[in-house]
Amino acid sequence: MAIVYDWYENPNAEGEPEERGLHPRPLLNGKVSMEKLYYRIHERSSLTVGDVKSAIDTLTQLCGEELCEGREVHIEGLGYFAPTLEATQKVTRKTKNKHLKLRLKGISFRPDIRLKAALAGVTATQSKYTRHSLRLSEVEIDMRLKEYFAEHDLLLRIDFQELCGMARTTANNHLQRLQKEGKLMNVGRRAQPIYRPMPGYYGMSRDAAPKR
User: Does the keyword Signal apply (predicted)?
Assistant: First the structure.
C-alpha cells in the first residue's frame, strides 16, 4: 500500500498563487495502538502477549531513566533518542541564574539505518480529495466561477471545492458569502444546495429572471 499525500503551500510563500512553492505532506492512514503491536509481536515470536507488554514497559522505563541522565539511547534497528532543551525566556551572557531559565523541550529521534531500509521502495500516491484550501482571493474565485458557468448551468458544493481547491468547510463559507452578496442563489434544498448565478454575475444577463 502506498503513502497517500497532498500538496501544501510552503509557509510564508510569496508571489502569485500559481507560482508559490508547494511541499508534499503525508496524510496519515490511521494509528496503530500498542495493544495491536503487542499481538503482532506475539504472532512473530515465542513470547506471550504479557511477556511482550512487560518487556516494552520495562524498555520504556529504562529509556526514560537514561534520558533523564542526559544520555542518548540507541535501540538497534529502531533509532536514537536524545533529550532536547529550550530557554523559557530570552537569555544572554549577562542573565543571572541561567539554570532557572530552561526546561525540557522534548525528545529528538533519529532513525536507525535498518528502519530506513525497511521503507526502501515505498511508493506514494496523491490524495483524490483536497483536505486543505488554496489561498484564492475573492476576485480569483469570481474568475473561476465565470469560467465554470460558461459551460455549466448548475454548481454543487463538491464542484466548487474541486474548482477552487478548497476543503469542505472553507468552500461552504465562501458559498454562504456569495449568496449573501447576491452572486449565487440556492435552487435546491437547504440540506442539498444547488447553485445558479444571479442575474448580472458570472455571465448571466442582468435582465434574466432568476430560475429556480
Answer: no
Domains defined for the chain, CATH in brackets: 138-197 (1.10.10.10)
Residue 41: all three cell numbers together: 509481536
d(CA 37, CA 31): 11
Using a CB cutoff of 8 Å and minimum separation of 24, what contacts does 47-54 make?
none
- Asked if residues 49 and 42 have their Cβ atoms less than 8 Å apart, the reply is yes
On whether the CB atoms of residues 21 and 10 are closer than 8 A, the answer is yes
Residue 196 predicted with pLDDT over 90: yes
What does the pLDDT read at residue 23?
82
Question: Which is higher by pLDDT, 31 or 116?
Answer: 116
Q: What are the residues facing 104 on neighbouring strands?
A: 85
pLDDT(36) > 90: yes
